Known about the structure:
It is a single chain. The chain is mainly β. A hairpin with a 2-residue loop joins strand 4 and strand 5 (130-137). Helix 3 runs antiparallel to helix 4. It has an 18-stranded antiparallel barrel. The protein has 4 helices and 18 strands.
Amino acid sequence: MPAGRRRVAALAWAAASGVASQTGLAADYSFDLSEIEPKAYELGGFVEAKAEHLRLRSDAALFPLTFAGETPRRTLDRGTVGLELAGRYRRDIFTAYGRISASLASDAYRTDRTGAVLEAGVRASPAEGLSFDLGKQVQRWGKGYAWNPVAFFERPKDPNDPQLSREGFVMASADWVKSLPGPLAAVGFTPVLVPANSGVNSDFGAPGHWNPGAKLYLLYADTDIDLAWAAKGSRPQRIGFDFSRNFGSQLEVHGEWARALDVTRREIGAGGAVTTRRAHADSWLLGARYLTANDVTWIAEIYRNGGGYDDAQLGAFYELLESAFGPAGTPALQAQARALAASGYARSQPGRHYAYLRASAKDPFDWLYLTPALTVIANLDDRSWQVTPEIVYTGWQNVEFRARAILLRGGAGSDFGERPPAHRLEFLVRLYF
């Protein structure tokens, strides 16, 4: 035990002994110094089981892509079991850490087995406020809750479940932070290096690049500010910033802005003609979090997706899908549709403008351990939307129950209207250890 920690422990022991002797309980008091020693290792995680019931729209434009080659059906029941395990081991200035996940999902269409190393690396902390990391990491840049335009070196969040663990990329990084006097209370710097080739980070982008980047952190006048940059390489060059500011104990306001320089993307016009365009893509987010006096948390965000498509462009893509996979469809037209889908049209949030609103209440009406919530995500261009009511119960130690319904609505040719499920019902049980 370091000398400073021994002195703190000795003072705690002396104070405890004095109080015990004054109350006549000294003979019954015990104090174990090992209880305040930090553990060299940590191990934890969870196992979960999830049941889903989906009401399908076989006439949705995205059905042939989502369930390629499958016979249309009205309903689909799916069962999933999963595991996530995380560990950490510390020795001197070094820390080894890792997080893995595995799942087995089965429904009438298919059985999927997945496994992934989400994080795995080594950290060296030679001095206070300084660390170096090497391995698979999740950087978590940005201040947004549902989206993060400045998350240059991360896989995107799922707005339906933003807290869900994500897989990182293999990289080298460092973190340096220093406190200062005056209005500029702290400054930090995080450089990263994300190599991409056929064997490492093959899904990050074009291979054969080192992909350096950096983030500068400032705490100025009680406002958190990040300036972010990613060099041109596997992806276009990107610059951006974010901020977060608390106004009292109840209101927090945050925002992000990012620009991807000279982005190439394919677009389909109303007549079906496909063109390639190069331009800068600006994305931004503005949001707020508000906690009411009766413990209701409101989160609201407006998001502009610079790489997304407006309602006319999405409508033209959905028309192409209906033609390609309809009775008169040809293999060439289907290949073109699949290529456009892979270029960005079929990602989870393909639109240009979105709104997010979530309200969650802790122990409402004195119903202990219950947290009901309601989440709405809307495409502001075509006015399609989804609403998710849910309830979480945590009354048993280390056990979580969650039930929710995801209801999608929208007209023909709209973002949420052309997704295969009309609604999805979920029930999840998670056991932490």
